[in-house]
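lol so apparently i was supposed to do this last week
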Amino acid sequence: MSTHDTSLKHLNTFSVEAQAAQIITATCSEHLTQAWHLAQKNHQPLLLLGEGSNVLFLGNFDGIVAVNRLKGIEITQTDSEWLLHVGAGENWHQLVCFALDNNIAGLENLALIPGCVGSAPIQNIGAYGIELRSLCDYVDLLNLDSGEVLRLSAIDCLFGYRESIFKHAYREGYAIIAVGLRLAKQWQPKLTYGDLIRLDAATVTPRQIFDAVCAMRRSKLPDPAKTGNAGSFYKNPIVDAKRVNALLAEYPNMPVYPQADGNVKLAAGWLVEKAGLKGFKIGGAAVHQQQALVLINQDNATSQDVVSLARHVRDQVAEKFAVWLEPEVRFIAAQGEVNAVEALS
Ligand code: FAD
Ligand code: EPU
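anyway here it is w/ flavin-adenine dinucleotide bound
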């Protein structure tokens, strides 16, 4: 377990300045339980971090940050499937590349998503027609107090759109230490989303899908190494049929994604753009020009700039469309996570 300087700027992709009381890097489960017990002894909060690509620090964090760097990829197989057991601190995109290099297909639609493998189940990462839940076999979860490890099957994880049990019952006092993935050897391309529909299912290769996904993402999403951001700032809102019909009567070209339960998912980026907010700035924070769902740190933004902008965007979209956006990004205050909707209200 190593201790660092206490700046969190390089540990959040928004690149906002914030300090922690202490930052440690955990390379094994024992480091995580030690950090938990140290925090308990000091009456401090403990925050687990992967690569900080889905968090916004609202100010300094008055506790210990444990950066998850538990490594290792083990591959086994059955006649029909590849089974990957992956340490939670592995980088997600590097795992996608590693799988492709080893002729293991199935992860290519999820290329270029920042962050750690262990964070992927928390919001059930998804992009270009696939969510983690369709590939997840199990998640290994460490009880930080007892040191006991629980293995949750994919069903137990209660995955939903940007949702899982790790945001609720297992949010405090537990760390994800490994993820099991199950990938069919009989590969079926998923070509339902965006430019992927132009590819030919009969001839397409996993590498071509990977390349197409990377190209689409690079054309829209800012690279956090150059421009601070945390991806989509808000979730796409899910509304009932009555609301969607009222909106469609006024905006017939509005994108809609019908859900299995009869409700309809709207494109938050479209709503933000149609509210006239592309490029809108408060302080150093701005709405991204290429993708209005992404808020960026354009010019040394403070977290207060980002919060003010996020509140303005939410209020303007509500005023125009009567739809209230909810942040996807997790808001971290001095004592730990706070409710992001309340923070913007
Ligand atoms: P962090 O931000 O470090 O942590 C996220 C939350 O999980 C925090 O609350 C943290 O306390 C908790 N946590 C972290 N590690 C653990 C652990 N081991 N055990 C328990 N709790 C833990 N997401 C998508 O779903 N689809 C996308 O297409 C997508 N595109 C993105 C594009 C960009 C440019 C960016 C910046 C982000 C994007 N995201 C996307 C969001 C982000 O990549 C994912 O949410 C990712 O899984 C976060 O990983 P992380 O390691 O950075 O998590
Ligand atoms: N749109 C606009 N203007 C914009 C942005 C989008 O009109 O500024 C329209 C697009 O033209 C399209 C629709 O909105 O018709 C959806 O846009 P896009 O395909 O870019 O996807 P998204 O809904 O904005 C979601 C995820 C992304 C994921 C992409 C690709 C959420 C909150 N976001 O974005 O995930 O990469 O789909 O599957 O579900 C993330 O979670 O951080 C993230 C980047």
